[in-house]
Amino acid sequence: MVGPTRFMTLLTCCELGVIDALRKNGRMTAAELGEAVGAKPDAVEQLLFLLVKEDFLRYDEEAGAYFPGPFFGGIPEPALQHVVSFLNMIKVVMLRQIFYLTESVKTGTVVGLDKLFGFQGNLYEAAAGEHTELREAWAPMMDGVTGQNDPWFWSNVDIPAGSKVLDLAGNTGFGAILTYRNNASPGLHVTTFDLPEKEAPSLENFRAHGVEEHCSFIGGDVFDGVPKGFDVVLIKNFLDMWDREDVLRILTGVNEALEPGGRVNILVPVYPEDIKDPASAGVDFFPAYFLGCTMGKGGPQKMSTYRRWLEECGFTVTKTVAQDLSTMPGALVAHGILCATKA
Amino acid sequence: MVGPTRFMTLLTCCELGVIDALRKNGRMTAAELGEAVGAKPDAVEQLLFLLVKEDFLRYDEEAGAYFPGPFFGGIPEPALQHVVSFLNMIKVVMLRQIFYLTESVKTGTVVGLDKLFGFQGNLYEAAAGEHTELREAWAPMMDGVTGQNDPWFWSNVDIPAGSKVLDLAGNTGFGAILTYRNNASPGLHVTTFDLPEKEAPSLENFRAHGVEEHCSFIGGDVFDGVPKGFDVVLIKNFLDMWDREDVLRILTGVNEALEPGGRVNILVPVYPEDIKDPASAGVDFFPAYFLGCTMGKGGPQKMSTYRRWLEECGFTVTKTVAQDLSTMPGALVAHGILCATKA
């Protein structure tokens, strides 16, 4: 019951500047904090009860002074910014939209985007278009996630020298650029495959990053077929957007486009094999995110489910690796890598 | 981070009818549930991961069937309805409004009511007026809370026979009616004191309940003074709406209106003396409720704080009693009773 209020009470302490003030000044009373952030001390005191309860802050009863607990006292500024960007994404993109979660589940559409922004479609379309509020909340969070996951992905995935690589649903080309940079070899060529309207920004990004000789773009819809002639297909942060039948269509399309021995490398959030594992908050977060806020459908699966689906679509799985959440402080959910070869 | 999503995922399973279907039918697959509630089985499966994680439901992997866990399997229908009415209040009254919590704290007004409903004022005014959506979500929850607290209050509070009782901020007279019924004695008279616009509905309620000879109404604003001539003043579910300075004005006004030896009996939610007590979710819930959704200010205090404020205002505290949350399954926060006498 108290999930929404706990969330917003914490974020409001960040938004008001209470946390910054305490990190800067060390110890402050409610009266000093109220003056510093432009709020009534009574209200500051009410908000800070929870932060004391959860040991985010500590309270010196004798002096009436608050000071940072271990988390806010110790976290470096960039890491704190990443946490706050995640909280802000949840607030801006999700908090109001999930009011309509039941309607979204029933209709298979993102009812919240329609009701709140007058937008019919999915979050990615809305954020790519005129809805700057959504883009500005979503993009920094996603950049942070990519920044965490990309080095890990490339430390686990091998692209043979001189490969022709297809980055499926590669958006505006950044995935292709990073693929080239992380695997540069004579003859390596990376092609972004996405909807035709992504071509111009992709080509511009290739030029801006000086990789226009090694990267190119093919426009199309993955559900109409996957381009042929590639040795390796990458599917990053994409399968979790779709229901089972669509994932099978995508994987079947990739299988049909590859020659025997051709490879697919997948990056996707995964639920833990033991759903009750308290270390993962994936099932706490993603169903509402995908069903209610972004797609009106989809959601991640367990690694074993993706493995089974790959095999159903004619692949031999050669490697699976899941992130270890115990080594990732603050991360909500582990991503997984699945590498497979066309049988 | 996952508070809002956990909350709405659970409530959506109730709203869709998944819980009702499983309580009625015992065991169902995602496909059967999808058909029963009019949603895609893939989406049902995504939502139910969390309910399995938290043991609200259980999953028979071999049969692919879900069935109720101990909570949903055991809770009687009326108790379940009360829980769902609380979840629904949080959704309708709070989930969208707390988006504006920071702005509400800064301005001391309920910015969410203005932004979402075009209403300037507090929740109680909005719900009493044209905003039926808010009233219909708030009133059943509040009725349930009153139903839980009223017998407990009267088992702890003694009204001397023949007293003249003032029910401070008594709204439309129901508190006066219950006070009379629970304490009927020759000469007992209970007066509701509230804003003048509550007079007509109060008198109508007194007549409808046949207590018009024992109950009456005085119109006025507690901050302009409290009527004199009463032996006992009741202050129920009211002090928690105000900041310290306002609580002190209310208590001082009551003290000035009473003769020495006159009594005040207070019912109010209280935070635990040890704020870190995990059994109470008061500080998790009320700051966002009062600051962001109802008043733009206020919030409960610890029993010891109310006791100190009563003493500051010229009272001798004769009794304090707090609810024991361990005996109240499902309750978020303990209420307290404070009885005091004018010194």
List the helices and strands and how they pair.
The structure is a homodimer of 343-residue chains.
Chain A lengths: L2 H14 L1 H8 L2 E2 H8 L3 H13 L3 E4 L4 E4 L1 H5 L2 H19 L5 H7 L3 H7 L5 H6 L3 H25 L7 E5 L5 H10 L5 E6 L4 H10 L6 E5 L12 E5 L7 H14 L5 E9 L10 H13 L6 E2 H10 L2 E8 L12 E8 L1
Parallel strand pairs in A: 4-5, 4-7, 5-6, 7-8, 8-9
Antiparallel strand pairs in A: 1-3, 2-3, 8-11, 10-11
Helix pairs in contact in A: 1-4, 1-6, 3-4, 6-10, 7-14
Commentary on this structure:
- Two copies of one chain form a homodimer.
- The first copy, chain A, contains 15 helices and eleven strands.
- Chain A is an alpha/beta fold.
- Chain A has two domains: 2-74, Arc Repressor Mutant, subunit A; 145-342, 3-Layer(aba) Sandwich (Rossmann fold).
- In chain A, strands 4, 5, 6, 7, 8, 9, 10 and 11 form an eight-stranded mixed β-sheet that branches. A three-stranded antiparallel β-sheet of chain A has the order 1-3-2.
- In chain A, α11 (174-183) links the parallel β4 (164-168) and β5 (189-194).
- In chain A, α1 crosses α4, α1 (3-16) packs across α6 (77-95) and α3 packs across α4 (41-53).
- The longest helix of chain A is centred in the middle third of the chain and has 25 residues, at 132-156.
- The termini of chain A are far apart.
- Chains A and B meet through α1, α4, α6, α7 and α14 of A and α1, α4, α6, α7 and α14 of B.
